[in-house]
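Q: Structure for this?
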Amino acid sequence: MKETVIRFKKSVKLNKPILVVGLPGIGNVGKLVAETLRKQYKPKKIATLYSPHFPHQVVMLKTGGIRLVGNRFYLLRPKGAKNDIILLTGETQAVTPEGQYEVNKKIVDFFADKLKGQFIYTLGGYSVTKELTTSPKVYANVTDKKLISKYKEHGIIFGKSRGMIWGSAGMILAFAKMRKMKGICLMGETGLLDIDASAAKAVLIALSKSTSLEINTAALDKIIEKTAKLLKEQEAIMQGQHNLEQKPAYIR
Amino acid sequence: MKETVIRFKKSVKLNKPILVVGLPGIGNVGKLVAETLRKQYKPKKIATLYSPHFPHQVVMLKTGGIRLVGNRFYLLRPKGAKNDIILLTGETQAVTPEGQYEVNKKIVDFFADKLKGQFIYTLGGYSVTKELTTSPKVYANVTDKKLISKYKEHGIIFGKSRGMIWGSAGMILAFAKMRKMKGICLMGETGLLDIDASAAKAVLIALSKSTSLEINTAALDKIIEKTAKLLKEQEAIMQGQHNLEQKPAYIR
Amino acid sequence: MKETVIRFKKSVKLNKPILVVGLPGIGNVGKLVAETLRKQYKPKKIATLYSPHFPHQVVMLKTGGIRLVGNRFYLLRPKGAKNDIILLTGETQAVTPEGQYEVNKKIVDFFADKLKGQFIYTLGGYSVTKELTTSPKVYANVTDKKLISKYKEHGIIFGKSRGMIWGSAGMILAFAKMRKMKGICLMGETGLLDIDASAAKAVLIALSKSTSLEINTAALDKIIEKTAKLLKEQEAIMQGQHNLEQKPAYIR
Amino acid sequence: MKETVIRFKKSVKLNKPILVVGLPGIGNVGKLVAETLRKQYKPKKIATLYSPHFPHQVVMLKTGGIRLVGNRFYLLRPKGAKNDIILLTGETQAVTPEGQYEVNKKIVDFFADKLKGQFIYTLGGYSVTKELTTSPKVYANVTDKKLISKYKEHGIIFGKSRGMIWGSAGMILAFAKMRKMKGICLMGETGLLDIDASAAKAVLIALSKSTSLEINTAALDKIIEKTAKLLKEQEAIMQGQHNLEQKPAYIR
C-alpha cells in the first residue's frame, strides 16, 4: 500500500452534507465528541480511509477479529435537519508531516468531489495551561472572516487563540480554504488532562448550537465525574507524600 | 533499490500452501518458532525478500561471507500433509510505517498471486505483564469470526487480547482480510524476557494442533532451562545487593 | 499535497531582481532581518510556497482566520534602485533532509526561471560561542571566490568560518552555484540567544552596504534593549541563587 | 533534487579499475585511510555524487567558498600498477535506510556500468571492545568465499567477526554480490576512539598488501602519537579526580 485510499462503501444520496471531524489529538477532545455522537446516533459507516502514513497496527477487537487502523466516515441524519452530517473519526492521525499533507488533502477532496460537501467543522483542544480547567471556554478559527459574527453569538471566542493548530483540525481547514470551501475549527480549552471530557462537552455544546445535532452529554458527564474523583484521590496521596517529606530528621 | 522486491528462486509446484510467519518481534516469539521449525525440517528456501525499508545492514556470516538483511520463504513438506507449509522468517521487519505497509502488502500479494496460497498463520508475543510468565497462554485474533470455534477447541483464547498488534503479525492479516483470504494470529503470553522460549513453545504447540507440523520442542526446552538458570543466578545477585544496601551505617 | 508548490500570484514585471532569504534558523537572525525589512517597506506578496515537508501546522491569525505555514516572496522596490529586491521569508524550513533538497532546489529554480533573478543573499547566524555577543561580526561564504574582494571592503569576514551551514542559507547557495548563479551567505556572529537582534542588526547593516536597501534599525534596537534588560534581571536572580547556595550549613 | 545523482566529470579511459571506499563510520577508519591516500597521491576527482538523503548542509571552505556535502570519486594511478584505483570518499553517508539503499546501489551500478569496474574494497572499523586497542587486528568479510585464502595470507582474519556491518561498507558489497561482482570489506579492530588512527593504519597496511598502493603511514603515525599523549593527560586527570573522591570524610 503506497498511497492513502478511501473506500467509499455506500453510494447513498446525500443532502448538502456538513463534515464534522473528531480525531485523536490534544486532550482527545475531538475524538471524545465524535464517540459521543457515534453512540447517540448509531450512524452507518459510508467510507473508510486507510493510509501507509498511519501507524502499522491492527486493532484487536472484542469479538476476536481484527481491524486495520483507519479513519471512518459515518452518516448522521438528525431529525428535520436541512443538512446531512458526515462524522469523521478513527484511531489515529498520520504520523509524519508528509503523511498529514497527503491524508488531509485526500479527506477534503473526497468530501468536496465525491460527497459534494458544503461546510467543515473540525474539533480539537486548545492547550492554555498546565492546570485543571473546570469550565472550559471554546476558541475558534475560521477559513473566512465573514463567518465570525454568526459563531460569536454562541459564545465562541475569536482572535484570542495564538500559535499553531497541529494536525487534521488545522490542515483540513487549510486545504478547504484553498478550494474556497468554508469551515471552522472549534477548540475546547484544556490543560492538565489527556482525556478531557469537560473540554469535549464544551465543544459539543458549541457544535450543537450551530448545527441540527441534538446533544446528549450524559456519557461525557460520567467521565467528568470519574475524572474529578480520581483527581481528588490523587491529590490526597500527593498531600500524604508531602507530609512524608516533612518527616522528622531521625527517620531515614 | 527503490522498492521491496521478492526474488522467487524455485518455481516448484506447490500443494495448497499455508503461510506461517515468524519474524522478530515481542519476546522474539515468532522468530524462535520459525528457527525451531527451520532446524527441524531443514527446508529449502524458495524466495527472498529485500526492502529499502529494512535496516541498512549486512550480516557477517560464520563462513566469512555476507548476506543482505532480508526475509526468506522456506518450503516445508510435513509427511502426509494435505498442505505445503511456507515458512517466512528473517532478520528484521520494516523500520517505518510506510515500509511496513509496503512490505506486508507485497508478502500477502506474493503468497496469494504467485504461490496460490490458502491460509495464513502469523506468530507473535502478547505482552501482558512485566513479570516472568512460566506457563504462558496463547491468545489469538482472526480475519473471520467463523474461524474461532475450531481454534478454541485447541485451548486458544479469543476476545481477551486488547489493544494493538504492531508490525507484520497484524498487518499481514489485515492485508489478507482485504483480499478475502483467511488467517489467524497466534500470540504467546509474554512479559519480562526479550527472548521468551516458553511463549514460543506454547505457540509452537498451538500451531501443531491445527496443522500437520510435527513438533519437536527440545531446542526450545534447552533455552527455557538456560534462561531459568540465568534468572536464578541474577536473583541471587540482586538478593546480595539488597543485603549490601542494608549494610550497617558505618560502612560507606 | 505530494510536492512543494509555488503559487505565483502576480505576474508583475521585475527589474533584474535580487533574492534576499531570511528564514528561521540559528538565533533567528535571518527571520529578524526579513521581518524588519517587511515592516519598513510593507512590500507586496508576489508568490507563496507550500510544502508537504513543512510541519503540519496552520497559524492562528489575530483576525480569527488561519494560514497554512509556508514561505512567501515579497517585492521590495527601494527608491532609485537598479535592482528589485525579492524578500523570501516564512514560518519554517523543511523538516527533513529530503524536504530541504526539494524545497531549496524549487526556490532557486523559481527565482532563476520565473523571476529571471540575478543574485542571491542568504542571511543567517553563525554560532561561535555560548556567551553573549555584544558587537557581533559578520562572516560570509560565497558561491564564487571573485565576489570576496567587494564584500571584504564592507568589513565582512571571509575564510574564518568553519564547519557546516545547515538548511536554506547554505542549500540555496549550493543549488544556485550548480546553475552558475552567484550569491553570498551573510552570517551574524551569535551565541547565547534564541532571538539575537544584535546579530540581525549587524547582518542588516552589512546587507545595506552592498544593496540599495535603506536600513532602519529602530525595531531591532528596541529588542536589543529589552533583551539586555531581561538578561540583567536574570543575572541578578542567578547571583541571588548563588548566594543561597552558599548558605550556612545549618539551613537545610 | 529528488534523487541521488552522480556527475561524471572526466570521461578518462580507465584501466580495469578497483574501487576503494573510505567513508565516515565507526572510528572514522575508512575516512582516515581515504584521506591518507588522497594526501599522498593527490588524485584527480573524476565524479561527484550528491543525494537528497545526505544531510542538508554545505561545507564552509577555507577559501571563503562553499561546497554541497557529497561523495567524490578520485582516480589513483600507482606506478606500474595493473589496475587503476578509484577512491570514493566524502563528508557523509545517507542518513536513512531508504537513502542507504538508493545511494549504495547507485555507487555499485556507476562503478560497474560507467567505470567498467572489477573489484571493490570497502574499509571500516569493527567495534570489539570499549577499551583502547593498541595493536588492532584486521577482520574481513567477502562476497565470495573463494577470495578468503588469498587474503588470509596477509594476516587478515575471517569468520571471527559477528553481527552486522552497517552502512556503505556492507551495503556496497551486498549490491556488488547481487551483480556477481566481487569485493571485500576490511575492518580495523577499534574500541574507545572516535578517530582511531591505529585501526586505520592496520587497514591501510592490509590494503597495501593486496593492491599496488604504496603506503606512507607518516600522517597516521602523527595522529596516533597525539592521541596517545592526550589519553595519558586525561588519565592523569582522572587519576586526580579519583584521589579527590577518596578525600577524607570531613571535606564536604
